[in-house]
Amino acid sequence: MDSLGITNYGTLGRTYSSGLESSAANSASKQASGSALDMNDFLSLLAAQFENQDVMNPTENTEFIAELAQFSSLQAMSQLSQYSERQYASSLVGKTVVVGGYDQAGQYVTKQGAVKSASFSSDGCSIVVNASGSDTAYDLSSVVQVVQDTAEAPAPQAPEEGKA
Fold first, then answer.
1. Side by side, which strands form the sheet with 96-102?
2. Does residue 61 lie within any of the structural domains?
3. 8 in the Ramachandran plot: left (φ > 0), alpha (ψ -120 to 50) or beta?
4. Which of 111, 6, 10 has the alpha carbon at shortest distance from 51?
5. Are residues 66 and 11 in the same domain?
6. Which domain holds residue 116?
7. d(C-alpha 15, C-alpha 37), whole Å
8. Taking the model in full, what pTM does it have?
9. Residue that terminates a domain, selected from 88, 113, 131
10. What is the pLDDT of residues 114-162, one digit of tens each?
């Protein structure tokens, strides 16, 4: 900008770090922590857009606001999905489930057992199933069926006379 004779044009170019340095640092940290984008990534991209936009044809403010609104709604939906998954895992505690997976020989094997606990991490949800007398942790996506435990199921009752 200074080559055009314009000095101190706005503060955006002087507030943010260079795009190459910040994107290299962000990509290194993202490879270590996962593939999900967060608000910091969005703001880094927004800063890079500000830095690299054409001075003679700047981007409209409404476009940036629309991008922020879209990212915020996407982030909210992702968070809602995560809460829903945690709620589902919690609801399985005490229930009998069938979990499936591939063994070391490459065969698909299912096991049935009672869910003892659910645990949550940034990678997702897992459950601990007591099958054949041993506790084993499974990813929530391994659940193929939730089985009604016949011991806990209430016996059907005959309607009393005079009541429908």
1. 134-139, 124-131, 108-121, 96-102, 143-147
2. yes
3. left
4. 10
5. yes
6. 93-147
7. 22
8. 0.55
9. 88
10. 999 999 988 889 999 998 888 989 999 999 999 886 555 454 454 555 5
